[in-house]
Structures are given as C-alpha cells and as structure tokens.
Specification:
Elements (H helix, E strand, L loop, with lengths): L4 E6 L2 E6 L7 H8 L8 E5 L5 H7 L4 E6 L2 H13 L6 E5 L12 E7 L25 H9 L4 E12 L4 H10 L2 E10 L4 E9 L3
Length: 205
C-alpha cells in the first residue's frame, strides 16, 4: 500500500509525515530545540509520531526506543530513521505508553509530547490520538505520570510538553511527589493557552 505523505524539514534533516500521523508543530519544535542527549544514553520517545525526536536523539544516544499507539506512526518513524541514517540505533514498538515495555526497562531520558487538549469526544482517527486528552486534557498525562518513574534511572531526565489548558501546576506537584525536581524550561504563549516544556530530574537516593 502506498502511503500519502507531506515532507517537513528540521535544520538540514528531512522527514516524511504520513497523512495518518500528527505533523510536527510548535510543541514538537519546543521540545526539539531543548533536546540535550549525552553520548551513550538510553532514550525513550513516547508518542513518537513521525519520529523526529527519536531521530534527533539517536545522533548522540546509544539506544532509542520509539513507542506510539498509532501503527501508522510507527511505520512512518521507522522510515524517517532509515532515511536519516539512524535506523540501527532505534527500536520501534506499537503500543499504549509503557504497556509494551518490560518492567525492568529503564532510561536516562524520557521524551513525551503528551496529548494535552481537552476534548469531549473519543478520537475518531489514529491522528487524533496525538492531541486528544479527554474531557480535562489529563487522561493520558495522568496515566503517564502514574508509571514513568519506574522506567527512569536515578538522575534520569524527563522532558514533557503540556498545555496550560490541562493543569500544568497539577503536573508539577505530581512530579515532585514522585521524587523529582521539576521546572518549566521553555514556553510558547498564545492568546488562549501556554504550551510549557517541563523538565524533571529523578532525585538519586
């Protein structure tokens, strides 16, 4: 089957975005421009979409695991890893958040551009899963926050994108309750919301 796609660029890199996949937008680039990966690190990219963050991380990381609930996104991300020369450093899994991971899997860095928009209706297409956060915008975020800490190494980092429409302060409080130091490192403001990039570091005990 032939995929219909658009082509987007980030710096000198080119990415195909299949029609059934969320196209990188300002929230994606907010995370991308703040992405710091150190040599040898293991990175988990949840909700990988077209794979742009997984590809960027793979240039420095020793290993990247890219996960998406959308099977079309997994195919798209794999193709972009191939075309950008990092396919051998990334594994791709179709599944919901941490469900497909082994219980002992841990990472130095977790990336998540979360579905954060308050939406009354259930997603009607695979692409809508990328932004549909349920009635209060927190359905996926809260599920993520319940489990992320067990997959983050001591001293490991989380980069999470969220909107002010879905309760940033509540997220910050939960992160601190989970034993992390958390801060907002960058924002994008519009007339109806602020999109924040939250960085959390798991405190070493």
């Amino acid at each position: 089957m032939t995929e219909h796609f658009r082509e987007v660029f980030y710096g000198e890199l080119s990415f195909l975005v299949f029609n059934c996949v969320y196209e990188p937008a300002e929230d994606t680039f907010l995370l991308a421009r703040n992405l710091v990966v150190y040599g040898g690190e293991r990175v988990l990219d949840l909700g990988t979409g077209c794979g742009i963050l997984a590809v960027l991380a793979a240039f420095k990381a020793s290993y990247v695991l890219a996960v998406d609930i959308n099977p079309c996104a997994v195919r798209c991300a794999r193709e972009n890893a191939r075309r950008n020369g990092v396919l051998e450093k990334i594994d791709f899994i179709c599944g919901n958040l941490f469900d497909p991971l082994r219980t002992h899997s841990s990472f130095d860095l977790i990336l998540f551009n979360a579905p954060y928009l308050p939406v009354e209706e259930e997603p009607k297409s695979w692409a809508e899963y990328a932004w549909s956060g349920g009635r209060d915008g927190r359905r996926v975020i809260d599920s993520f926050l319940e489990r992320f800490i067990e997959h983050l190494k001591p001293g490991g980092r989380l980069l999470l994108v969220q909107s002010s429409l879905s309760g940033i302060e509540r997220t910050m409080s939960t992160l601190m309750d989970k034993g992390c130091k958390a801060e907002i490192v960058d924002t994008i403001k519009s007339f109806f919301e602020t999109i924040a990039l939250i960085k959390a570091v798991k405190v070493q005990r």
